[in-house]
From TrEMBL:
Co-factor(s): FAD
Family: Belongs to the acyl-CoA dehydrogenase family.
Domain Acyl-CoA oxidase/dehydrogenase middle: 34-126
Protein name per the record: Acyl-CoA dehydrogenase
Keywords, in A-Z order: FAD, Flavoprotein, Oxidoreductase
SUPFAM superfamilies, per the entry: Acyl-CoA dehydrogenase C-terminal domain-like, Acyl-CoA dehydrogenase NM domain-like
PROSITE patterns per the UniProt record, alphabetical: ACYL_COA_DH_2
Superkingdom of source: Bacteria
Residue span(s) of domain Acyl-CoA dehydrogenase/oxidase C-terminal: 145-285
Lineage, broadest ranks: Bacteria, Bacillati, Actinomycetota, Actinomycetes, Micrococcales
Pfam short name (any one): Acyl-CoA_dh_M
Length: 292
């Protein structure tokens, strides 16, 4: 949320003044950011978002609802995506809570990524000055450009979870003894560990390629989507193997695999589900959009 979605939106689409006002403080975590795109009725089809932005002189008036917004209840600045009632395009606005008409309620009962608070937000006539509109955000295509960049971070995050799972599993297999021998001495266990390692290595290669493409400013939606899709799917598989290799201990929080399993579920869904990434890549390789 902070370094990816919120800071990248400002860095990629903000004015010089907006960048100077927010980025140094956000980089030092003196100011917290959030990114409010998803709505209760629009997740995968966030392109159809219904939050509106109406121009009123030198101000904009925002109305609508947002859901799942990480840091939304504690952020100093929230990048809110809303549809301009004038030209119908999606634009980005920097809202600085608390402000009249803004309500953010912490969501409860989340079983994944419990370290982060998500919020449901209501905007009821929230006023922001024109100076808080992101000048580089002219349509949803610009929102999508930010998301392509941050999907890279999700691919890396999935690699982190898978690496942890492999590490926990190989350590455990060396220490746990059954039938008088360590689990690691059984051929089937070795085969499973090697398969896990092979998946981790392939995920690393995706991440390495993403980093090189970003350096060269050549990362495309398609590459970001296939990397995110591959890595979150593979991480789930590696985690399921690790959980099984730990036997009953695999479901104990002390052994951490279960926590990683819960957390990968959020990564698998946010910034576009596996299916949506698949459809982005499918549209590119066939030339046919199959979203609707
Ligand atoms: C932990 C967490 C943190 C989040 N943080 C943020 C945040 O900070 N800011 C923000 O704006 N959003 C955030 N989100 C929202 C996230 O981006 C959405 O949850 C995600 O885009 C999916 O939307 P949805 O949950 O409404 O699912 P839906 O869109 O309702 O999807 C449900 C299922 O239907 C499938 N589906 C949808 N459309 C199609 C189709 N055309 N063809 C086939 N299958 C389809 C999906 O793949 C999925 O399996 C977060 C979500 C989570 C879980």
């Amino acid at each position: 949320m902070q370094a990816g979605l919120a800071m990248q939106s400002i860095a990629m689409l903000g004015s010089q003044e907006q960048k100077e006002q927010w980025l140094p403080r956000m980089a030092r975590v003196e100011a917290l950011g959030a990114f409010a795109l998803t709505e209760p009725e629009h997740g995968s089809d966030s392109v159809s978002l219904e939050t509106t932005a109406r121009r009123d002189g030198e101000e904009w008036v925002l109305d609508g609802r947002k859901k799942w917004i990480g840091n939304g209840s504690i952020a100093d600045v929230v990048v809110v995506w809303a549809r301009d009632t004038g030209d119908g395009q999606v634009k980005g606005f920097l809202v600085e809570p608390p402000t009249p008409g803004w309500t953010a309620e912490k969501m409860t009962g989340k079983g994944s990524l419990r370290a982060v608070w998500q919020a449901e937000i209501t905007l009821d006539g929230v006023r922001v000055p024109e100076a808080n509109r992101l000048p580089g955000a002219g349509s949803f295509k610009d929102t999508a450009r930010v998301l392509a960049g941050t999907r890279n971070a999700v691919a890396w995050g999935a690699l982190g979870h898978a690496t942890a799972a492999y590490d926990i599993a190989i350590t455990y297999a060396g220490e746990r003894t059954q039938f008088g021998r360590p689990l690691a001495s059984f051929q089937i266990v070795q085969e499973r560990l090697v398969r896990m390692l092979a998946e981790v290595c392939s995920m690393q290669l995706y991440c390495l390629r993403l980093a090189r493409l970003i350096e060269q400013e050549r990362l495309t939606d398609t590459i970001a989507a296939i990397a995110k899709m591959n890595n979150t799917r593979r991480a789930r598989e590696v985690l399921a193997e690790a959980r099984d290799l730990l036997g009953g201990n695999g479901i104990l929080l002390d052994f951490h695999v279960m926590r990683h399993m819960a957390d990968i579920e959020a990564l698998h869904t946010y910034e576009g589900t596996e299916t949506i990434q698949t459809l982005i890549v499918g549209r590119d390789i066939t030339g046919i959009g199959a979203f609707a």
